[in-house]
Design brief:
heterodimer; A: alpha/beta; Aspartate Aminotransferase, domain 1; Aspartate Aminotransferase, domain 2; 2 domains; seven-stranded mixed β-sheet; 14 strands; globular; B: alpha/beta; TATA-Binding Protein; eight-stranded mixed β-sheet; 14 helices; 21% strand
Chain lengths: 387, 345
């Protein structure tokens, strides 16, 4: 099989991830931070080790500002629902995934107002458009770092500059960039960064988190979930300490430990090297696909402004049928449809049908890319014979 | 006669039939029966058994009545098309009107390996009213595992078959047909047609078998693979002999259909109103011959990679490995049902 669905979940995983998943429960399967016995301490050490590695990766001085969540969606829900309250205004974009669109939409019923910034034909949003959307009561700007439909990298740092005078918090959805694009929280100016563990960070599903930048005080972000944390047990209220304030309940120790193993591999390899390989594969794929008659490639033209997410539409084909034929006849795994981002598809001129999306990963080879291009060429010229 | 007086008048003609008698009638009224599928065969059998006074009837079906059903599915009428109620519910209402003295348990669910044992666990025997092999082989596993008799029935065109399976005593479905036909290989009623009288004939045999099972008339049960063609007027009974000791189901008691990964898996596709049905293990469908079968009932086109078929509000794209993308629904149960009707599973 040729696996080109890394934007959904990266696969395969580095060997230490499998090993940790296999051994951790057996060797350190206790509850972290609750009990003082040796195995509990080992479990806690693994969780804190991963927290520290994430802090290093994203250039955060205080690891306690890394909050574990079930996935990026969970982290985005905490950020959006924890920051916004009735009467607030939020600026977001048409390029967002449902993990941003839906929590914001849900808040509209309690009196949060929204402005959606449009994108150009390549999927880019401009800082000027964000500036124009700001209102005095704008409390949050929520934007995807890179599109999960066509890979367009948004000018997040420039948008942060626009916000500097205003004071609104900047929430960045790093679902498609964490682990594949080298950046720190400071470099992109994010106040809140939501990331998944199972995509570019090469960890298992069920991991992810929210990073709080230095501007975010605990009074700015209300917990969306209360419960046990292992400390301050005599109190009725959720503790005000980080990360406990936002981590009620036992965390996914096994998954977090395995994510830690993946982060070790990433640190050794270097995010820049990973990104360079993915960029090379992506460019090879885009150039190959662009040469096929009947295929429309929805990617940004500038290789520096896109991540490894490539969407196409093919004349005469429904994306779902095309994806199934790739899987059946060529054993190529891709994703088709709207990718949980209907307005992004609309902005790119691929609505309501959606697209066929290929997302290479760190383990994708040039030969796999070439075979994929050939398969697309073959299918694009197949016509239906009516009987 | 005292016995006759103890029989309610409504069952009198049946109870004075000597092999049943008043005791037999009481057995029928105590009987608990599950009918899996209330389409053509199932409605006929349910109608007969409700009238006969079977005390507990569980009827299970995942579909809703459609216009093309009325030609042969006797419990439904035109008003059911507008009501849009599931077949199980619509049939239950009709059956209650026919006989208010019996208990009817309507289950509008998709039968699968997670629920089948619960659906049949508390009945005396099971009657096959399904239209697909996926469920029949599952039913065979579940019934053999629990030692519950079941009556197989199938109809296509003017032809029908029936066989009564007494676990441990007579051959089971897999003794006779070790494996189901691969998806897309066998004709279905939606592609080859079906005649009401053929349904009625097979349903009559299934119902009579049910009455024999209920009254303990085991020596009269069908111990053959019975087939008939009401157009050619041919009837055949192939003796089945003993169960096959090597049969994976009743011989080795490996209940592969109950235990294995689901033979079909549905995924709601992002975007359009569409559901993908993926079959496991992968099939090898010859698209050209499937196209020939589907031609009379809709618009068909195909190439080396896929077949596209449009009919009756649905758009099906079928791939050689047996997967199909069914547009026109977001309901996985409806998609599986459409798959069973046009492609066959």
């Amino acid at each position: 099989m040729i696996y080109l669905d890394n934007a959904a979940t990266s696969w395969p995983k580095p060997e230490p991830v499998y090993e940790t998943l296999g051994s951790f429960l057996r060797e350190a399967g206790a509850n972290p931070g609750r009990s003082g016995h040796r195995m509990a301490v080992r479990a806690a050490a693994a969780v804190e080790g991963t927290r520290a590695a994430l802090a290093r990766l994203f250039g955060v001085d205080d690891p306690r500002r890394v909050i574990f969540a079930s996935n990026a969606t969970d982290a985005l829900n905490l950020a959006i629902k924890g920051i916004l309250s009735a009467g607030d205004h939020v600026v977001t974009t048409v390029m967002e995934h449902n993990s941003v669109r839906r929590p914001i939409r849900a808040l509209e019923v309690i009196g949060v107002s929204t402005t959606k910034v449009p994108a150009d034909a390549e999927g880019f949003v401009t800082p000027e458009a964000v500036r124009a959307a700001l209102q005095p009561n704008t409390r949050l700007v929520a934007i995807t770092h890179a599109s999960n439909v066509n890979g367009a990298i948004q000018p997040v740092a420039e948008i942060a500059e626009v916000l500097a005078d205003h004071g609104a918090f900047l929430l960045v959805d790093a679902a498609q960039t964490a682990g594949t694009l080298p950046f720190t929280l400071d470099e992109i100016g994010a106040d809140l960064l939501a990331f998944p563990g199972h995509k570019g960070l090469m960890g298992p599903p069920g991991t992810g988190g929210l990073i709080l930048g230095p501007r975010v005080e605990i009074d700015d972000l209300t917990p969306v979930r209360e419960g046990g944390t292992g400390g301050n047990s005599e109190e009725d209220f959720q503790p005000r300490t980080l990360p406990a304030r936002y981590e009620a309940g036992t965390v996914n120790t096994v998954g977090i430990a395995a994510l830690g193993a993946a982060l070790d591999v990433i640190a050794e390899t270097g995010v820049a090297a990973i990104g360079a390989h993915e960029r090379e594969m992506t460019t090879r794929l885009i150039e190959g696909l662009r040469a096929i008659p009947g295929v429309r490639v929805l990617s940004p033209s500038d290789p520096e402004r896109r991540v490894a997410v490539v969407s196409i539409t093919v004349d005469g084909w429904e994306p779902a049928d095309f994806g199934a034929a790739l899987d059946d006849a060529f054993q190529i795994a891709c994703r088709t449809g709207l990718h949980c981002a209907p307005e992004a598809c609309q902005a790119l001129g691929a609505f309501p049908g959606g697209t066929v999306r290929f997302s290479p990963g760190f383990f994708t080879t040039a030969e796999e890319i070439d075979r994929t291009i050939e398969a697309v060429r073959e299918l694009a010229k197949a016509s239906l014979q009516m009987v | 006669m005292i016995e006759t007086r103890s029989t309610p008048a409504r069952y009198q003609r049946q109870a004075i039939f000597a092999p049943i008698g008043p005791e037999g009638q009481q057995c029928i009224q105590r009987a608990r029966v599950c009918i899996v599928g209330v389409g053509a065969l199932g409605t006929h059998v349910a109608d007969t058994l409700a009238r006969a006074g079977v005390g507990f009837l569980r009827i299970v079906d995942r579909d809703v009545p459609e216009l093309t059903n009325l030609q042969r599915q006797i419990l439904f009428d035109e008003s059911d098309l507008d009501a849009g109620l599931p077949k199980a519910i619509a049939a239950a209402r009709r059956l209650s009107a026919i006989n208010s003295e019996i208990e009817i348990d309507a289950r509008a669910v998709d039968v699968n390996q997670t629920n089948i044992e619960g659906l049949i666990g508390d009945v005396d025997f099971v009657i096959d009213g399904t239209d697909n092999f996926e469920i029949r082989y599952l039913l065979n596993d579940a019934c053999v595992k629990q030692g519950i008799p079941w009556i197989y029935g199938g109809v296509i065109g003017s032809y029908g078959m029936s066989m009564t399976i007494l676990p441990g005593e007579t051959p089971c479905l897999r003794c006779v047909f070790p494996d189901p036909p691969p998806p897309g290989e066998a004709p279905t009623c939606d592609t080859a047609g079906v005649l009401g009288p053929a349904v009625a004939a097979v349903a009559a045999i299934e119902s009579a078998e049910a009455l024999k099972l209920a009254t303990g008339a085991r020596e009269n049960l069908n111990r053959t693979l019975l087939s008939l063609d009401i157009w050619d007027l041919t009837f055949d009974r192939i003796p089945l002999g003993e169960p096959n000791t090597e049969c994976p189901c009743c011989g080795r008691r490996q209940f592969e259909f109950l235990n294995r990964e689901a033979p079909s898996h549905t995924t709601q596709l992002c975007g359009r109103d569409a559901v993908q049905v993926l079959v496991h293990p992968p099939a090898r469908i010859t698209l050209a011959s499937l196209a020939e079968r589907l031609k009379p009932v809709g618009e068909v086109g195909y190439n080396a990679y896929l077949l596209r078929f449009r009919t009756d509000g649905y758009d099906l794209t079928v791939f050689p490995d047996g997967r199909a993308i069914i547009k026109g629904t977001t309901d996985p149960v409806e998609a599986r049902s459409v798959y069973a009707r046009y492609i066959g599973m």
